Amino acid sequence: MKSRQILALILVAFLAVLGVAFAVTSHSSVSKDSVELKTDSAVTTAPEPRSTTVKMLAVGDNLIHKPIYSQAQARTKDGSYDFKPVYANLKETIQSADIAVINQETMMSSSRPVASYPCFNTPTVMAQTLADLGFDVLTLANNHMLDTQSSGLIETLDLINSTPGLIGVGAYHNREEYKQIKTLTVNEIKFAFLSYTEHTNGIALPSDKADYIIYMDESDDVKMQVQYARTVADVVVVSMHGGVEYSDTASDFQKAFAQNVVNWGADVVIGTHPHTLQPIEYLTSTDGRQVPVLYSLGNFVSAQDKYKRLIGGMAWLTFTKDHVTGKVAVDKPQLDIAITHYGAGFSGLKLYKLSQYSDSLASRHALSALTMKSIYEQIRSIIGDEYLIDEYKAK
User: Fold this and answer.
1) Does 18 score more than 50 pLDDT?
2) Exposed, middle or buried by CB within 10 Å (0-12, 13-18, 19+), for 344?
3) Is the sign of the CA dihedral 140, 85, 365, 386 positive or negative?
4) Which tens digits make up the pLDDT trace of 361-395?
5) In CATH, which of 3.20.20.100, 3.40.1670.10, 3.30.1490.20, 3.60.21.10 is domain 51-392?
6) CA 110 to chain centre
7) CA proximity to 140, closest of 125, 152, 123, 132
8) What is the per-residue DSSP string for 80-109?
9) Residue 278 near residue 239 (C-beta atoms within 8 A)
10) What pLDDT score does 46 carry?
11) Residue 146, Cα to own-chain centre: how many angstroms?
12) What is the model's pLDDT at position 241?
Protein backbone atom coordinates (compact mmCIF):
# COMPACT_ATOMS: atom_id res chain seq x y z
CA MET A 1 0.00 0.00 0.00
CA LYS A 2 2.78 2.35 0.94
CA SER A 3 4.67 1.59 -2.26
CA ARG A 4 1.48 2.27 -4.29
CA GLN A 5 1.07 5.63 -2.58
CA ILE A 6 4.65 6.57 -3.34
CA LEU A 7 4.20 5.54 -6.97
CA ALA A 8 1.02 7.61 -7.23
CA LEU A 9 2.75 10.67 -5.80
CA ILE A 10 5.61 10.32 -8.27
CA LEU A 11 3.12 10.06 -11.14
CA VAL A 12 1.25 13.18 -9.99
CA ALA A 13 4.50 15.12 -9.69
CA PHE A 14 5.63 14.05 -13.15
CA LEU A 15 2.33 15.13 -14.71
CA ALA A 16 2.52 18.49 -12.92
CA VAL A 17 6.04 19.14 -14.25
CA LEU A 18 4.97 18.13 -17.75
CA GLY A 19 2.01 20.54 -17.60
CA VAL A 20 4.18 23.46 -16.55
CA ALA A 21 6.68 22.73 -19.31
CA PHE A 22 3.88 22.60 -21.89
CA ALA A 23 2.46 25.91 -20.68
CA VAL A 24 5.85 27.64 -20.80
CA THR A 25 6.59 26.30 -24.27
CA SER A 26 3.19 27.38 -25.58
CA HIS A 27 3.55 30.88 -24.12
CA SER A 28 7.04 31.30 -25.63
CA SER A 29 5.83 30.37 -29.11
CA VAL A 30 3.03 32.97 -29.09
CA SER A 31 5.33 35.66 -27.80
CA LYS A 32 7.94 34.95 -30.48
CA ASP A 33 5.37 35.06 -33.31
CA SER A 34 4.03 38.34 -31.99
CA VAL A 35 7.49 39.95 -31.96
CA GLU A 36 8.22 38.79 -35.49
CA LEU A 37 4.93 40.24 -36.77
CA LYS A 38 5.66 43.60 -35.17
CA THR A 39 9.14 43.66 -36.70
CA ASP A 40 7.81 42.87 -40.20
CA SER A 41 5.12 45.53 -39.86
CA ALA A 42 7.64 48.22 -38.85
CA VAL A 43 9.83 47.55 -41.88
CA THR A 44 7.01 47.96 -44.39
CA THR A 45 5.39 51.10 -42.93
CA ALA A 46 8.36 53.33 -42.06
CA PRO A 47 10.38 54.41 -45.14
CA GLU A 48 13.79 55.81 -44.34
CA PRO A 49 13.87 59.65 -44.40
CA ARG A 50 16.08 61.07 -47.17
CA SER A 51 16.66 64.55 -48.57
CA THR A 52 18.93 66.28 -51.08
CA THR A 53 19.89 69.93 -51.44
CA VAL A 54 20.79 72.27 -54.32
CA LYS A 55 22.34 75.72 -53.94
CA MET A 56 21.52 78.05 -56.82
CA LEU A 57 23.23 81.38 -57.51
CA ALA A 58 21.44 83.99 -59.64
CA VAL A 59 23.00 87.25 -60.84
CA GLY A 60 21.80 90.19 -62.91
CA ASP A 61 22.68 91.76 -66.26
CA ASN A 62 25.87 90.84 -68.10
CA LEU A 63 25.89 94.18 -69.94
CA ILE A 64 28.95 94.42 -72.18
CA HIS A 65 29.70 98.04 -73.05
CA LYS A 66 32.58 99.13 -75.29
CA PRO A 67 35.13 99.71 -72.49
CA ILE A 68 34.68 96.08 -71.41
CA TYR A 69 35.21 94.49 -74.81
CA SER A 70 37.92 97.00 -75.82
CA GLN A 71 39.95 96.11 -72.73
CA ALA A 72 39.34 92.42 -73.40
CA GLN A 73 40.77 92.80 -76.90
CA ALA A 74 43.74 94.82 -75.66
CA ARG A 75 44.77 91.86 -73.48
CA THR A 76 45.48 89.76 -76.57
CA LYS A 77 47.89 90.13 -79.47
CA ASP A 78 45.81 88.48 -82.18
CA GLY A 79 42.64 90.58 -82.06
CA SER A 80 40.70 88.06 -79.99
CA TYR A 81 39.06 88.84 -76.65
CA ASP A 82 39.96 87.83 -73.12
CA PHE A 83 37.18 88.64 -70.65
CA LYS A 84 38.42 86.37 -67.85
CA PRO A 85 40.14 89.06 -65.73
CA VAL A 86 36.85 90.98 -65.45
CA TYR A 87 35.25 88.09 -63.54
CA ALA A 88 38.30 86.47 -61.91
CA ASN A 89 37.54 87.63 -58.36
CA LEU A 90 34.12 85.97 -58.47
CA LYS A 91 35.02 82.71 -60.19
CA GLU A 92 35.39 80.69 -57.00
CA THR A 93 32.01 81.90 -55.72
CA ILE A 94 30.25 81.09 -58.99
CA GLN A 95 31.80 77.63 -59.19
CA SER A 96 30.72 76.86 -55.62
CA ALA A 97 27.06 76.92 -56.74
CA ASP A 98 25.29 73.76 -57.88
CA ILE A 99 23.46 75.86 -60.50
CA ALA A 100 24.42 79.39 -61.59
CA VAL A 101 22.09 81.65 -63.61
CA ILE A 102 22.89 84.94 -65.38
CA ASN A 103 20.97 87.33 -67.65
CA GLN A 104 22.96 87.62 -70.88
CA GLU A 105 21.77 91.11 -71.73
CA THR A 106 23.73 91.48 -74.96
CA MET A 107 23.47 89.16 -77.95
CA MET A 108 26.47 87.34 -79.44
CA SER A 109 26.02 87.29 -83.20
CA SER A 110 28.93 85.95 -85.25
CA SER A 111 27.65 87.55 -88.47
CA ARG A 112 27.72 91.14 -87.18
CA PRO A 113 30.43 93.47 -85.90
CA VAL A 114 30.94 93.93 -82.18
CA ALA A 115 28.91 96.90 -80.93
CA SER A 116 27.91 98.82 -77.80
CA TYR A 117 24.94 100.99 -76.80
CA PRO A 118 22.29 101.42 -78.09
CA CYS A 119 22.33 98.18 -80.11
CA PHE A 120 24.78 95.78 -78.50
CA ASN A 121 26.65 92.84 -79.99
CA THR A 122 29.19 91.00 -77.86
CA PRO A 123 32.12 88.82 -79.01
CA THR A 124 31.04 85.19 -79.22
CA VAL A 125 33.85 84.09 -76.89
CA MET A 126 31.69 85.41 -74.05
CA ALA A 127 29.67 82.19 -74.13
CA GLN A 128 32.72 80.05 -73.39
CA THR A 129 33.90 82.58 -70.81
CA LEU A 130 30.65 82.22 -68.88
CA ALA A 131 30.78 78.42 -69.13
CA ASP A 132 34.34 78.39 -67.80
CA LEU A 133 33.29 80.63 -64.91
CA GLY A 134 30.71 78.05 -63.88
CA PHE A 135 27.44 79.47 -65.19
CA ASP A 136 24.85 76.95 -66.35
CA VAL A 137 21.78 78.92 -67.44
CA LEU A 138 21.78 82.08 -69.57
CA THR A 139 18.48 83.94 -69.77
CA LEU A 140 18.00 85.78 -73.06
CA ALA A 141 14.58 87.41 -72.73
CA ASN A 142 15.46 91.08 -72.32
CA ASN A 143 15.00 94.44 -74.02
CA HIS A 144 18.23 94.06 -76.05
CA MET A 145 17.49 90.60 -77.44
CA LEU A 146 16.59 92.04 -80.87
CA ASP A 147 19.55 94.43 -81.11
CA THR A 148 21.00 92.11 -83.77
CA GLN A 149 17.58 91.41 -85.29
CA SER A 150 15.86 88.04 -85.23
CA SER A 151 18.72 86.27 -86.99
CA GLY A 152 21.24 87.47 -84.42
CA LEU A 153 18.98 86.27 -81.63
CA ILE A 154 18.84 82.77 -83.11
CA GLU A 155 22.62 82.79 -83.66
CA THR A 156 23.04 83.64 -79.98
CA LEU A 157 20.60 80.95 -78.85
CA ASP A 158 22.35 78.32 -80.99
CA LEU A 159 25.79 79.44 -79.78
CA ILE A 160 24.78 79.06 -76.14
CA ASN A 161 23.10 75.69 -76.59
CA SER A 162 26.12 74.37 -78.51
CA THR A 163 28.52 75.43 -75.74
CA PRO A 164 29.07 72.48 -73.38
CA GLY A 165 27.60 73.14 -69.96
CA LEU A 166 25.28 75.98 -71.02
CA ILE A 167 21.57 76.24 -71.76
CA GLY A 168 19.87 79.34 -73.15
CA VAL A 169 16.28 80.16 -72.21
CA GLY A 170 13.78 82.79 -73.29
CA ALA A 171 14.07 82.48 -77.09
CA TYR A 172 12.65 79.91 -79.51
CA HIS A 173 13.03 78.75 -83.10
CA ASN A 174 9.29 78.13 -83.40
CA ARG A 175 6.11 77.73 -81.39
CA GLU A 176 6.58 73.97 -81.10
CA GLU A 177 9.49 74.67 -78.74
CA TYR A 178 7.23 76.40 -76.21
CA LYS A 179 6.62 73.05 -74.52
CA GLN A 180 10.24 71.94 -74.79
CA ILE A 181 11.00 73.37 -71.37
CA LYS A 182 14.71 73.65 -70.57
CA THR A 183 15.51 71.69 -67.42
CA LEU A 184 18.48 70.74 -65.27
CA THR A 185 18.56 67.89 -62.75
CA VAL A 186 21.06 68.27 -59.93
CA ASN A 187 21.22 66.14 -56.78
CA GLU A 188 17.96 64.44 -57.81
CA ILE A 189 16.06 67.75 -57.99
CA LYS A 190 14.72 68.74 -61.41
CA PHE A 191 14.61 72.47 -62.23
CA ALA A 192 12.67 74.11 -65.08
CA PHE A 193 13.79 77.54 -66.33
CA LEU A 194 11.57 80.11 -68.05
CA SER A 195 12.43 83.65 -69.16
CA TYR A 196 10.26 86.57 -70.31
CA THR A 197 10.74 90.24 -71.23
CA GLU A 198 8.44 93.25 -71.00
CA HIS A 199 9.60 94.75 -74.32
CA THR A 200 12.40 94.85 -76.90
CA ASN A 201 13.06 98.59 -77.16
CA GLY A 202 10.45 99.04 -79.86
CA ILE A 203 12.11 96.59 -82.25
CA ALA A 204 9.46 94.25 -83.64
CA LEU A 205 9.81 90.74 -84.95
CA PRO A 206 8.77 89.98 -88.55
CA SER A 207 5.33 88.35 -88.62
CA ASP A 208 6.79 85.01 -89.72
CA LYS A 209 9.14 85.02 -86.73
CA ALA A 210 6.72 86.23 -84.07
CA ASP A 211 7.10 83.00 -82.11
CA TYR A 212 10.79 83.64 -81.32
CA ILE A 213 9.85 85.52 -78.11
CA ILE A 214 7.17 85.31 -75.42
CA TYR A 215 6.52 88.73 -73.89
CA MET A 216 5.44 89.20 -70.28
CA ASP A 217 2.00 90.48 -71.35
CA GLU A 218 1.29 87.39 -73.48
CA SER A 219 -0.49 85.83 -70.55
CA ASP A 220 -1.94 82.78 -72.28
CA ASP A 221 1.48 81.55 -73.43
CA VAL A 222 3.16 82.41 -70.13
CA LYS A 223 0.46 80.60 -68.16
CA MET A 224 0.67 77.55 -70.41
CA GLN A 225 4.44 77.34 -70.01
CA VAL A 226 4.48 77.81 -66.24
CA GLN A 227 1.70 75.28 -65.68
CA TYR A 228 3.34 72.78 -68.03
CA ALA A 229 6.73 73.29 -66.34
CA ARG A 230 5.01 72.56 -63.03
CA THR A 231 4.13 69.06 -64.33
CA VAL A 232 7.65 68.17 -65.53
CA ALA A 233 9.89 69.60 -62.79
CA ASP A 234 10.27 69.77 -59.03
CA VAL A 235 11.15 73.48 -59.12
CA VAL A 236 9.98 76.16 -61.58
CA VAL A 237 12.28 79.20 -61.87
CA VAL A 238 10.84 82.21 -63.71
CA SER A 239 13.02 85.12 -64.85
CA MET A 240 11.30 88.40 -65.67
CA HIS A 241 13.00 91.32 -67.41
CA GLY A 242 10.90 94.40 -66.87
CA GLY A 243 10.09 97.43 -64.81
CA VAL A 244 11.39 101.01 -64.84
CA GLU A 245 15.08 101.51 -65.56
CA TYR A 246 17.12 102.94 -62.65
CA SER A 247 14.19 102.71 -60.23
CA ASP A 248 14.69 101.34 -56.72
CA THR A 249 11.08 100.14 -56.54
CA ALA A 250 9.14 97.54 -58.48
CA SER A 251 6.50 98.73 -60.93
CA ASP A 252 2.86 97.67 -60.83
CA PHE A 253 3.51 95.65 -64.00
CA GLN A 254 6.36 93.72 -62.35
CA LYS A 255 4.24 93.01 -59.30
CA ALA A 256 1.22 91.86 -61.30
CA PHE A 257 3.33 89.59 -63.51
CA ALA A 258 5.06 88.08 -60.49
CA GLN A 259 1.74 87.36 -58.76
CA ASN A 260 0.39 85.70 -61.89
CA VAL A 261 3.32 83.33 -62.38
CA VAL A 262 3.32 82.53 -58.67
CA ASN A 263 -0.37 81.60 -58.91
CA TRP A 264 0.35 79.45 -61.97
CA GLY A 265 3.11 77.47 -60.26
CA ALA A 266 6.43 79.34 -60.08
CA ASP A 267 8.62 78.48 -57.08
CA VAL A 268 10.87 81.54 -57.37
CA VAL A 269 10.79 84.70 -59.50
CA ILE A 270 14.03 86.49 -60.42
CA GLY A 271 13.92 90.01 -61.86
CA THR A 272 16.32 92.00 -64.03
CA HIS A 273 16.28 95.14 -66.24
CA PRO A 274 16.18 98.18 -63.89
CA HIS A 275 20.04 98.05 -63.58
CA THR A 276 19.66 98.76 -59.86
CA LEU A 277 18.71 96.64 -56.89
CA GLN A 278 15.05 96.38 -55.97
CA PRO A 279 13.40 94.79 -52.91
CA ILE A 280 12.74 91.13 -52.21
CA GLU A 281 9.37 89.98 -50.93
CA TYR A 282 7.22 86.87 -50.58
CA LEU A 283 3.97 86.47 -52.51
CA THR A 284 1.23 84.02 -51.58
CA SER A 285 -0.07 81.80 -54.36
CA THR A 286 -3.71 80.83 -54.76
CA ASP A 287 -2.83 77.39 -53.38
CA GLY A 288 -1.19 78.90 -50.29
CA ARG A 289 2.50 78.62 -51.17
CA GLN A 290 4.90 81.35 -50.04
CA VAL A 291 7.12 82.24 -53.02
CA PRO A 292 10.20 84.52 -52.97
CA VAL A 293 10.26 87.29 -55.59
CA LEU A 294 13.50 89.17 -56.25
CA TYR A 295 12.30 92.16 -58.26
CA SER A 296 15.72 93.22 -59.58
CA LEU A 297 19.28 92.01 -59.04
CA GLY A 298 20.68 95.04 -60.87
CA ASN A 299 23.71 94.81 -63.13
CA PHE A 300 26.21 92.02 -62.75
CA VAL A 301 28.78 93.95 -64.79
CA SER A 302 28.53 97.09 -66.93
CA ALA A 303 30.34 100.29 -67.81
CA GLN A 304 27.54 102.53 -66.61
CA ASP A 305 28.41 105.73 -64.78
CA LYS A 306 26.10 105.99 -61.76
CA TYR A 307 27.15 104.27 -58.56
CA LYS A 308 23.82 102.52 -57.87
CA ARG A 309 24.20 100.70 -61.20
CA LEU A 310 27.56 99.30 -60.11
CA ILE A 311 26.11 97.45 -57.10
CA GLY A 312 24.80 94.05 -58.17
CA GLY A 313 22.98 91.32 -56.29
CA MET A 314 24.25 87.74 -56.25
CA ALA A 315 21.30 85.79 -54.86
CA TRP A 316 21.76 82.45 -53.12
CA LEU A 317 18.70 80.19 -53.11
CA THR A 318 18.82 76.82 -51.34
CA PHE A 319 16.35 74.09 -52.32
CA THR A 320 15.81 70.91 -50.27
CA LYS A 321 13.78 67.96 -51.52
CA ASP A 322 12.15 65.47 -49.15
CA HIS A 323 12.31 62.24 -51.14
CA VAL A 324 9.60 60.61 -49.00
CA THR A 325 6.96 63.28 -49.69
CA GLY A 326 8.43 64.58 -52.96
CA LYS A 327 8.08 68.17 -51.74
CA VAL A 328 10.78 70.82 -52.24
CA ALA A 329 11.35 73.67 -49.78
CA VAL A 330 13.26 76.85 -50.63
CA ASP A 331 15.15 78.75 -47.97
CA LYS A 332 15.02 82.51 -47.59
CA PRO A 333 17.09 84.21 -50.35
CA GLN A 334 20.46 85.55 -49.22
CA LEU A 335 22.25 88.25 -51.23
CA ASP A 336 25.97 88.55 -51.73
CA ILE A 337 27.02 91.77 -53.48
CA ALA A 338 29.20 92.38 -56.56
CA ILE A 339 30.87 95.76 -57.15
CA THR A 340 31.99 96.94 -60.60
CA HIS A 341 35.26 98.80 -60.12
CA TYR A 342 37.04 101.01 -62.64
CA GLY A 343 39.40 103.96 -62.74
CA ALA A 344 39.38 107.09 -64.88
CA GLY A 345 38.04 106.47 -68.37
CA PHE A 346 36.66 103.07 -67.25
CA SER A 347 40.24 101.77 -67.01
CA GLY A 348 40.94 98.45 -65.30
CA LEU A 349 37.27 97.48 -65.14
CA LYS A 350 36.70 94.37 -63.04
CA LEU A 351 34.37 92.85 -60.47
CA TYR A 352 34.87 92.46 -56.74
CA LYS A 353 32.69 90.89 -54.10
CA LEU A 354 31.80 93.45 -51.47
CA SER A 355 33.75 91.35 -48.96
CA GLN A 356 36.85 91.91 -51.16
CA TYR A 357 36.26 95.64 -51.55
CA SER A 358 37.70 98.34 -49.29
CA ASP A 359 37.89 102.06 -48.62
CA SER A 360 41.25 102.07 -50.37
CA LEU A 361 39.82 100.58 -53.57
CA ALA A 362 36.75 102.81 -53.40
CA SER A 363 38.97 105.89 -53.14
CA ARG A 364 40.47 104.97 -56.53
CA HIS A 365 37.10 104.44 -58.24
CA ALA A 366 36.31 106.91 -61.02
CA LEU A 367 32.98 107.66 -59.32
CA SER A 368 33.57 109.53 -56.08
CA ALA A 369 29.97 108.79 -55.06
CA LEU A 370 30.80 105.10 -54.76
CA THR A 371 32.13 104.61 -51.24
CA MET A 372 31.86 101.82 -48.72
CA LYS A 373 29.36 104.00 -46.86
CA SER A 374 27.15 104.59 -49.92
CA ILE A 375 27.28 100.89 -50.85
CA TYR A 376 26.09 99.76 -47.43
CA GLU A 377 23.43 102.46 -47.27
CA GLN A 378 22.07 101.29 -50.61
CA ILE A 379 21.94 97.57 -49.90
CA ARG A 380 20.51 97.97 -46.40
CA SER A 381 17.83 100.44 -47.47
CA ILE A 382 16.72 98.45 -50.54
CA ILE A 383 17.37 94.83 -49.56
CA GLY A 384 17.51 94.98 -45.76
CA ASP A 385 19.42 92.79 -43.33
CA GLU A 386 16.82 90.02 -43.61
CA TYR A 387 17.99 89.09 -47.11
CA LEU A 388 21.70 89.94 -46.92
CA ILE A 389 24.37 87.37 -46.17
CA ASP A 390 25.52 87.58 -42.54
CA GLU A 391 28.74 89.40 -43.42
CA TYR A 392 26.82 92.49 -44.57
CA LYS A 393 24.20 92.74 -41.85
CA ALA A 394 24.30 95.75 -39.54
CA LYS A 395 26.20 94.91 -36.36
Assistant:
1) no
2) exposed
3) positive
4) 999 999 999 999 999 999 999 999 999 999 999 97
5) 3.60.21.10
6) 29
7) 152
8) ----HHHHGGGHHHHHTSSEEEEE--S---
9) no
10) 65
11) 25
12) 99
